[in-house]
């Protein structure tokens, strides 16, 4: 069956009469149609959009359905959810007749039983065209009987504001942990339903090239966890309150994509069980353009196993971890013991030792020793920027789910792909025999050194080298050869007692660091160059900011217009801040530039007004930045304070120790703003430079090292609130090093100068290959 067959059947259907169907026409996309239903129980005609799962496989894979209408009766909503299971191998006219009959039945039932009407909205697009936004019943996309049951049970009133706040905070934690965030539906309009993605570059996982080749995964790709909820964002309590009669409140799909943001069509298809078995490579969706094909969400066999595991057992395992304080492996063992105990109780027998405490945490990284440090933090116990042992309601569900998926993906050779139990150490099918081994030379971290070397991390034992003694070669020079830095107290020796040096080139690429002994600056610069480029690329975090604006506006909509202040409550977890304590006379003062344009004035005036309104209505600790608007006499020159950092951050600890309550920034706008980005630099205090393992994306001259603030990453539609928040988040980042303040003896009290900031900005942008704004020289005044 082909596309021609579908078009022929559609033409025939438009010429036939079907009860309650007043109009049938071809949809905007290939393989879709729009059907209008009229019924006496409906206040107005109901429009339903139908689409083939794959037009090339029509009618084998059936149809999906959704509606633009906001007031769909519950019976019809349930029908749309289950349609894909009932329309396989049915022609267009057969599907229309079946829907007509079931709509008639559903509406009659609704009238008789007076069933409450429910809103089923989703702003997901069939394709990422960026134009027409369809509201659809998102439940059909991978919707199961479980998700429908949740939808029917979720009519109890709840605080949308509270749930949305929790969603924002959870995604902020994921962002701080190094994940990129992509929204595939408009959560700012329909907070009760959302499809979003968390992703991390494959290169951050530290997997060997041969492993990636065997799994058919490229190092330039992203590992993506798709998340979907359709009955409101679940709290941690709700997500972990699972049983046979209480299905999961969030569904997941785990796979790869060439970018951090998969195409909407391929993401939605991943949630549809019919398309997972489709013979087409892109889950049966063949009518996408070239750009869509570059962002296809793909599931391989290795990721499909993890996908099933996350959906079937994450909630139960997380419940065991939170209730008993155990590791993932112990939680899995407990789950199996509980299942076995239940089976034995049914048979009248007992299982000795089932109720014993499975205590003890594993002494191994959460993901992999070779992965980024932030990925190895156990986020069930803490957040990226907070102290350990958080309460359950402070944990980030998407972050925990993404780390859980990455853990079992990276360590898949250590676990059974069917039951996901950890394999025995002698499991020969996944652990090949080896003869010569290398033990990573970090003897200070060994469990024991006498009389035997004992390590507690299996990854430290690796088959690596064959030592060959060569004949001397005259005039041979190895001055350009870079060697692995060894433990000076336990240097390896060869047969003749000569110290062995291991060339860096002998290591796999993922372990190679271009470093010469005694050259920390070279190591820091080159090791982090590529990762900083990745970390600074934009994602959809601006959507979170927009959601915060929406929620803040909703919260204050009932307040008096004259209310200019908010009640400030101290947060013991954050550094205290008092507005207006900075000595204004010590800050740069610039006259209005003669080259100021009317467009620049208009945009900046609008931004200042929006920021002033937001600052007046938002608690300072929640906002994280402060502008003294009374001192803004030149709209092309702002002074901004960043404050209220989490006390668990090394930066906040340094600030508290040195009695510094805020980071003072200067923001200058050039002649071409908003086409070109603003110039953002730190005035005070001084930060530890990157060459000395200082982080926070602050250059040695005080300028911010962010692609967002160059022509390469800037967008004229970016809001300045978004800029301030992302600058603050960059300073909070712990990867590759946390931001630290320079010691007082090194001149911490001295401010950064504008000249050194611009020069540092140029060096940073040139190093990363970012485009420098042409009006940068105009910033160097005053």
TrEMBL record:
Gene3D superfamilies: Ubiquitin Conjugating Enzyme (3.10.110.10). GO terms for molecular function: glycosyltransferase activity; nucleotidyltransferase activity. Residues 599-771 form the UBC core domain. Residues 121-141 are annotated as: Disordered. CDD domains: UBCc_UBE2Q. Keywords: Glycosyltransferase, NAD, Nucleotidyltransferase, Transferase. SUPFAM superfamilies: UBC-like (SSF54495). InterPro entries: ARTD_PARP, UBC, UBQ-conjugating_enzyme/RWD. SMART domains: UBCc (SM00212). This is Ubiquitin-conjugating enzyme E2Q-like protein.
